TrEMBL record:
Family per similarity comment: Belongs to the ATP-dependent DNA ligase family.
Protein name: ATP-dependent DNA ligase family profile domain-containing protein
Gene3D superfamilies according to UniProt: 3.30.1490.70, DNA ligase/mRNA capping enzyme, Nucleic acid-binding proteins
InterPro entries in alphabetical order: ATP-dep_DNA_ligase, DNA_ligase_ATP-dep_cent, NA-bd_OB-fold
Lineage: Bacteria, Pseudomonadati, Pseudomonadota, Alphaproteobacteria, Hyphomicrobiales
Any GO BP annotation: DNA recombination
Catalytic activity reported: ATP + (deoxyribonucleotide)n-3'-hydroxyl + 5'-phospho-(deoxyribonucleotide)m = (deoxyribonucleotide)n+m + AMP + diphosphate
Residues covered by the ATP-dependent DNA ligase family profile domain: 86-212
Length: 227
């Protein structure tokens, strides 16, 4: 099973599972959280996405997906994603939903992926701005990846359609990259964090056809004191 929305690969989008705990008492609306894969609650950073998700026809759910920044052709752009996060301008990000683990109190994680996705698709009977269901095709992975590379995308992700959900990889999915390359200009760096003692990340830019320099994003480095 290859996912059309996940052609972007994870490095172009921000992984963000969401959860709706069951409402209780006289609470008028269920509590919604946007949680990163490291467990951080970033609901306040993506208010528009949270509001859009509340319009899905479900009382409680745990949905796995990614936040992406798209260009005018609907393609994910990494530099736009980082710029939106750095500047706090996240209203134009799009949430791609690609898995469903719990729905209305039922644990469906043990079901095969293809069955979970069928249940997930039912939550998208109509278009909601800022939300997209991640479609997929079954079989012919090499050709699917080749088409992704022709479109200038980063690659494709293939998953076992017959297996239950499992955290992490555990051999049930494979990322096939196109290995596209591009030259960037180093325009600065960030301060080191944690165990890093030199620099944190390089700030990169690129020139457009009219000679203007645009910010492209950040790249972590493995530099030593000597380098």
């Amino acid at each position: 099973m290859c996912s059309t929305a996940e052609l972007n690969a994870q490095s172009r989008c921000k992984r963000s599972p969401i959860a709706w705990p069951e409402p209780f008492g006289s609470t008028p609306a269920p509590l919604l959280k946007l949680v990163t894969r490291t467990g951080l609650d970033w609901s306040h950073r993506y208010r528009r996405t949270a509001e859009a998700l509340q319009r899905l026809p479900v009382k409680s759910a745990y949905i796995d997906g990614e936040l992406c920044a798209l260009n005018d052709d609907g393609e994910p752009v990494f530099s736009r994603l980082q710029a939106a996060m750095d500047e706090g301008k996240t209203d134009q990000l799009v949430f791609y939903a690609f898995d469903l683990l719990f729905v209305d109190g039922e644990n469906i994680a043990p079901l095969p992926l293809v069955e979970r996705k069928a249940k997930l698709k039912r939550l998208f009977p109509r278009k909601i701005a800022g939300l997209l269901y991640s479609h997929h095709v079954v079989g012919n992975g090499p050709q699917f990846r080749a088409e992704a590379c022709k479109l200038g995308l980063e690659g494709a992700i293939s998953k076992r359609a017959d297996l239950p959900y499992a955290p992490g990889n555990r051999g049930i999915w494979l990322k096939s990259k196109c290995l596209n390359r591009e030259e960037f200009v180093v325009v600065g760096w960030t301060d080191p964090e944690g165990s890093r003692s030199n620099i944190g990340a390089l700030l990169l830019g690129y020139y457009t056809a009219d000679g203007r320099l645009h910010y492209a994003g950040r790249a972590r480095t493995a530099s030593t004191t000597r380098s």
